[in-house]
Amino acid sequence: MHYSTDALRRRPGRTALTALGIGLATALVLVLLSVSAGIQTSAYRLATSSGVDLLGTSANTSLSSTSFPPLIGAHGLARAVPEADPNVATASPWLVSSLVFANASLFAASNLSANGSSVPAGWQPASASSIGWIPSDNGGLEVPAIVAGSNLPATGDPHYANGSYQGPSSGAVVLNTALARLLHVTPNATIWASAQSPSGPAALGSWFAHASSFRVVGVSGPFWFLPSVSLGMFYLSELQQLVGGASASTDYASLVLIHLTDPTLAGQDQTLLSAKFPAITFFTLGNVLGAIQRVVDLYRTFGTIIGLIGILVATLFTATVLLMSVEDRSRELALLRAVGFSRAQVGWFVVQEGLLLAALGLAAGLPLGLLGATLLNDSLERLVSGLPTGFSFVAFNGSVLAEGLAEVMLIGLVASLIPLVRALRIPVAEELRAA
After folding, report:
1. How far, in Å, CA of 377 to CA of 373, rounded?
2. Helix, strand or coil for residue 417?
3. Which secondary structure element, helix H or strand E, spans residue 416, and what is its range?
4. pLDDT tens for residues 190-235?
């Protein structure tokens, strides 16, 4: 080890540059690994803490679908699913849709002229996501915490009125912080919502005439179900009315989220409910996490390719430097052979030099990787608003460090191969005569 250390010490500039090159490759690998680990860890934590043990969608719908065909008879599912399976504590039908929202300022500006000329440039309704549910049927499910105002005011779904859709409309909505900021509203403000978008400022008057007005009763924090999006939350029947009329034939939802009394029996409940509700496909939490894992694996494959390119470049650079070092010390190595050192011992000196360079690179790469992962996470958190509490894009954990260490040591070993062969083939007699 002393000989290899001395060889590196004699060429400080070349040693430092090589270690820095390995360190940069190490940092790149660590950042890529930490991102995949962070997304996977955060997604797993959010899924397991959500309270969702089974997820129901329309039959033959996969978890990778970007849209969900309607589940007919949504309100009835809240009662029928628990009746069919005693282990079901909660069956909550959710309708997920997109709406267009506008605030009172835009309403007032649109009323100042018939052709929309009074509307300031850039003012227009905002597109956002929406969820319709039955608040009293969300027991055991993690829903957004109210940070201002209150939640939807009544239990059940008053407007549904046992399928007549003749009950009183609450006219209430809860906005998450992202949508509340976008609309510049607080609790007790009035907003308008519609499934249609106006064609331009001149059409705003007609749009408001056909849109439905709602009172903002509360503002919520981020939501794990639809993180980083602007979101409005309604009673199920009132959102149904907004997106296509409300009647027995249009009583539909996108999903049914199920919370079990004993989640360890989720597989049995999945089989039981699939037999009793053939029009619904049920997924366990394990199925959901598996789908998340496949997405993470896809990213990880892409990241691995980029990381391998960095490692390959660092390995070639290190191999070149080691080969130059062997050539510079060919007479020294020949002399070592002449005084009794074996080929294996001389070869081991070269491998030690490669491993020492890798270790120096690791020492440089660890803080660079940690700094890069931290800066990336901070940048993404600023870029993506409305993330659930505790969500992190990166996880700089033991697994990441272990993989990074293994790959860096691999650089040192692989980079030593060609210099090792050269060192073993040094013609001892010729070198000594040349000296």
Report:
1. 6
2. helix
3. none
4. 999 999 999 888 889 899 999 999 999 999 988 877 766 789 999 9
- H or E element: which one contains 243? helix 236-244
Nearest to 40 by CA among 266, 227, 289, 239: 289
Q: How far is CA 360 from each of CA 13, 24, 175, 413, rounded to the nearest angstrom? A: 13, 11, 52, 14
DSSP 8-class letter at 388: P
DSSP structural state of residue 43: H
Check: CB of residue 413 under 8 Å from CB of residue 355: yes
- Give the Cα separation of 104 and 81 in Å (integer): 41
Backbone angles phi, psi at 60, to 5 degrees: 65, 25
Give the strand pairing for 212-220 and 190-194: antiparallel
Give the distance between the most distant pair of CA atoms in the chain.
107
Q: Are 285 and 266 a contacting pair, CB within 8 Å? A: yes
User: Sign (positive/negative) of CA torsion 110, 115, 120, 123?
Assistant: positive
Phi-psi region for residue 124, left (φ > 0), alpha (ψ -120 to 50) or beta? beta
Whole-number Cα distances in Å, 82 to 137, 218, 264, 268: 11, 30, 17, 14
DSSP state of 168: P
Q: Are 267 and 259 in contact (CB under 8 A)?
A: no
Instruction: Determine the distance from the C-alpha atom of residue 276 to the mean position of all C-alpha atoms in its chain, rounded to a whole number.
Output: 34
Written in H, E and C, the secondary structure of 97-144 is: EEEEEEEHHHHHHHCCCCCCCCCCCCCCCEEEEEEEECHHHCCCCCCC
pLDDT in tens, 381-416: 777 666 666 677 777 777 777 777 777 777 777 777
Phi-psi region of 167 (alpha: psi -120 to 50; beta: other; left: phi over 0): beta
pLDDT in tens, 239-267: 999 987 666 567 899 999 999 999 889 99
Q: How much is the pTM? A: 0.71
Is the Cβ–Cβ distance between 1 and 352 less than 8 Å?
Answer: yes
